[in-house]
Amino acid sequence: MFVNPLSVLFPGRRWLRPGMSQVIDISTRQVQYFPIPKVACSTLMASVAEVLGIEPPADEWAPEIFQTHKWDHLYDREQVVLSKADALRKVGRWRFAFVRNPWDRLVSCYSEKIREDGDAENFVDGVSKILLSFDAFHGSMTFDDFVDAATAIPDDQADPHWRSQYTFLVDRSDRLAMDFVGRFEHLNRDIRCIAGKLGCELNLRHLLMSRRGAYSGYYNARTRERVARRYERDISMFNFTFEG
Q1: 141 and 169 together in one domain
Q2: Model-level pTM?
Q3: Which of 107, 106, 128, 108 is nearest to 117 (CA)?
Q4: Is 174 in the same domain as 186?
Q5: How many CB atoms lie within 10 A of CB 165?
Q6: Do 169 and 150 fall into the same domain?
Q7: 133 shares its domain with 177
Q8: What is the pLDDT at residue 14?
Q9: Are 34 and 127 found together in one domain?
Q10: Count of domains in the chain?
Q11: What is the pLDDT of residue 121?
Q12: What pLDDT does residue 57 have?
């Protein structure tokens, strides 16, 4: 039986099973947001919660509204948080998502999930508890080691934090199902399009901001090529290039 590592970390809460593609349906605006982990999704989920009028206590982590069942009493989850399949069956919705350069996204994942200084509440021996179901990671691993481990895990087994981005955004016919795909690299610019469609301002509180150097400095020729092969479809579908 599957045991979500987050339920061990926070035993008083019911966490949603990782790996499942979930969509936030803003029915009053006929808009749907398709979150992708490591693509400003915490920032965007917090903003969408405000649009929906869902207000957890000020000192709480706003994205938990959609990530756990802790705040289900504040809104009708069944009407707002949908499976991808159910979301795509909704007729007349305007669908949006944001994508991120795969080389940069993997560095972000490594920087956040593999940390020798990780606190005891969220990490075990330097590895984020959400990765405990994998045997491939350890706290002292180099970025090269992380690339080898993560890219060896296929999308049907990968954690959402490094699963190919296109898998979140295509329909059953394998076609892109979005009306608008913004870029993490141009978040502040592209969010204006979303705000215009919603007909309201979006307050971007940049949560989990990374403090590290340029992603290109993490790579050598071998790991750069390995990521290019693993995320070939993301790169071709969204016209990404390695910069640096």
Answers
A1: no
A2: 0.88
A3: 128
A4: yes
A5: 27
A6: no
A7: no
A8: 42
A9: no
A10: 2
A11: 82
A12: 83
Q: Which domain holds residue 70?
A: 21-100+165-204
String of DSSP letters for 145-201: HHHHHHHTS-TTTS-TTTS-THHHHB-TTS-B--SEEEEGGGHHHHHHHHHHHHTS-
Are residues 172 and 129 part of one domain? no
What is the pLDDT, as a whole number, of residue 155? Answer: 95
pLDDT at 89: 96
Burial 210-242 (b: 16+ CB within 10 A, else e): eeeeebeebbeeebeebbbebbebbbebbebeb
In this structure, the strands spanning 94-99 and 81-83 are: unpaired
Shared domain check, 94 and 63: yes
Q: Which residues, including other chains, have CB under 8 Å from residue 178's CB and lie 6 or more apart?
A: 34, 95, 96, 97, 169
Give the pLDDT means over successive 10-residue stretches in the chain (244 positions).
Answer: 41 44 92 96 89 86 84 93 96 97 97 89 90 90 97 95 97 97 94 89 65 90 98 98 90
CA pair distance 115, 43, nearest whole angstrom: 22
pLDDT of residue 145: 97
Say if residues 100 and 35 touch (Cβ distance below 8 Å): no
Q: Is residue 146 part of a domain?
A: yes
